[in-house]
Design a protein that fits this description.
95% of the residues lie in helices and 0% in strands. By secondary structure, it is mainly alpha-helical. It has a domain of 99 residues. The longest helix has 88 residues. 3% of the residues are buried.
Length: 152
């Protein structure tokens, strides 16, 4: 069996793996984008609530309401902090997945180039073998034809 034929299953598996990793990377990137949007929403909500507090404080606010506002802001800050930590972990996962995908894609491309090289080498070898066979056949025919003419 020719080398190019033996390498085709290896190349196919590497290509399929790269494709699956690309899909997983794209899906994980989508999750990352959604989580970034969630963080932006939390920050926006905090700004709005802070503005409400400023307006209420300008009109006069009792100590209990001020305490409630501050407690709620603290909970929002905690949620923002947790979201930032989650995003950092997710970003690390996405980066690692991207590196793995790019590496696998590089392997698949290298195998593809190797297959092309093997195929070209095999074509050259086949052409050389065919030429040699044609040359031998021509020599045999010429050799027989030559002796035929000598006999006349």
């Amino acid at each position: 069996m020719k080398r190019s034929k033996r390498m085709q299953p290896v190349h196919r598996l590497a290509s399929e793996s790269a494709t699956e990793l690309a899909r997983a990377y794209a899906a994980r990137r989508e999750v990352l984008d959604q989580e970034r949007e969630r963080l932006a929403q939390l920050r926006g909500f905090r700004r709005e609530y802070e503005q409400k507090l400023a307006v209420s404080a300008g009109r006069g606010i009792d100590a209990y309401r001020l305490r409630d506002y501050n407690a709620f802001l603290a909970r929002i800050d905690e949620a923002i902090g947790q979201q930032q930590q989650s995003l950092a972990r997710l970003q690390t996962d996405v980066d690692a997945l991207q590196r793995t995908w790019l590496e696998q894609r590089g392997n698949a491309l290298a195998l593809e180039r190797l297959l092309v090289r093997y195929h070209r080498e095999e074509q050259r070898a086949d052409a050389t073998r065919d030429q040699r066979l044609h040359d031998e056949l021509a020599q045999r025919q010429f050799g027989r034809g030559d002796s035929h003419w000598r006999g006349i």
